[in-house]
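Researcher: Checking consistency across runs. Here is Stage 0 sporulation protein A homolog again:
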Amino acid sequence: MSFTVLIAEDDPAMRRVLKKIAEEDGRLRVVGEAGNGTEALALFEKLRPRIVFVDIDLPLKDGVSLARDIFAREPRTHFVFITASDDYREAAFEVYACDYLVKPFRLERLRQTLTRLADVLAGSAGDYRAGPDLSVSAGGPAGDTLFLLRTDSRTAVLDRKEILFVTREGRQTVVYHVHGRLETGDNLKTLADKLGGYPFFRTHKGFIVNLRMVREIVPAGRGTYELIMAHTNRRPLMTARKFREMERVLAAGKNTDTVI
């Protein structure tokens, strides 16, 4: 079985490099190449590749906009960003990019990324979108895992199921859980990676929420919503864009093991 790849890159020489490296792994097959974002989106609609290489600085439609458009159509798409700038890393990981490679990059790094992607698609490796495997078995049913959280003076052990939401308060990241709150020096991106996929969802630039703990979603004006949570009177925020993203992904049935 082969997994299809689309390359969206305006530099023909870089396209050749990406195609050569991708096809070194016999499980990957490049089915389309595009030199601008508009062409790339049209090819995606036609070919529906599993993996898309995205250059940020594409003509006509930039790589971030392209990735968001593709993600809206097919959230299961795997993205590898190739760029000369480190400025768009957060935007790339909004669509759960597998990797973000800043030119010049080592070809071995690219090979490792593609090998991992092929392993994920083949089912022989856990999905990178579930975050790094930093949990330990809780000895209960499948999915009952413990989450290790570094605080200033100790390491706390939390059950993922008991985490309500994560937010920034001043210079600290705060994890609210059913028994209280804990502060950590980790940023939201780091915790999002550790927490992994569903039911954890980045509802807003300042919040990661356990959707299983949400009881109501209430309009709050100016394109935002307040989330009424179980076990707390605090109300995390959700943007209108994130609300639509959540609706799309859940409607597609990706509410079990896919990061949203």
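Researcher: Does this match what you'd expect to see?
Model: One thing to look at in this run: Helices lie at 12-24, 37-47, 63-73, 89-94, 107-122, 188-195, 240-251.
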